[in-house]
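User: Structure with BJW, tokens only please.
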Amino acid sequence: MIKIDRELIETLRKSESIVFFTGAGVSAESGIPTFRGKDGIWNKLKPEEVANFDAFIKNPEMVWEWYNHRKKIIQESRPNQAHLSIAELQNYFSDVAVVTQNIDNLHKRAGSEKIFELHGNIERNFCIQCKKFFNEELDFSNGIPKCDCGGLIRPDVVWFGEYLPEEQFKGGEKAAMNSDLFFVVGTSAVVYPAAELIYTAKFSGATIVEINIEETEISSMAKYSYFGKAGDILMEILGEFKLSKNL
Ligand code: BJW
Ligand code: ZN
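Assistant:
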């Protein structure tokens, strides 16, 4: 068990706006592999070979195979204690925002309401030509699915070299600027401009709390760092908070 600082619980109690900035590590305990780090999938697979538009044009079958494989894992998974603890905090604070780099929808499934998805969502797809959305299950029986206009359909996720969805990023930025307490959970914090929001929060005066199984690029920015599994630590923080309020 990790000891949670009393001072953090006091800061939490005084906070009005809380942000959880999350990455792949928050879903690791749901059985969804991370990209980097010890068990990251990119130890075996190069990101530039799958997570960019040129790769998709060159080899859509391979890219779709990867996304369909991940989609299956995601659909079979469930939110874990990390997602659930974050969602439960909404019962005690009126402004809890989740700014996530994940595409797995697990925060929503856990019950979080204010979510900014910086890198898209694997449940949506769109035509690369006319941009029409296809959110139903796609049919791969005749090869890679195509739109009526003839364009290839791709997952609605953000690949390297692509712009982030503007409203989602703006929403995340605003939440970061207004936050009193900014939790950075399960992210290596190396992918930009997403990771920029940690700096935005810090320079806007938020207290930064990092939760990760190991040190990261931004560890030195955090006032409080907890190294361990996100589910365990968030459950403990929630528990200490409730105890402090006799809940
Ligand atoms: C646990 C745990 C447990 C494990 N509990 N913790 C500035 C400087 C340098 C480069 C750039 C820059 N600005 C832009 C760039 C280029 C690029 C970039 O950032 N490159 C760097 C990697 C070098 N950025 C882009 O290209 C972005 N677009 C852009 O900049 O547009 C402007 C532009 C347009 C046109 C031309 C030029 C510029 C887009 C980035 C898109 C990223 N996309 C991906 C794939 C999404 C779809 C998919 O899922 O397939 O997003 S890449 C991948 O990385 C994915 C993730 O969201 C993202 C971040 O990863 P994350 O979540 O941090 O996961 P991991 O695996 O890295 O870390 C997991 C962590 O969890 C680890 O720390 C573990 O220790 C921890 N952990 N288990 C707690 N149980
Ligand atoms: Zn089309």
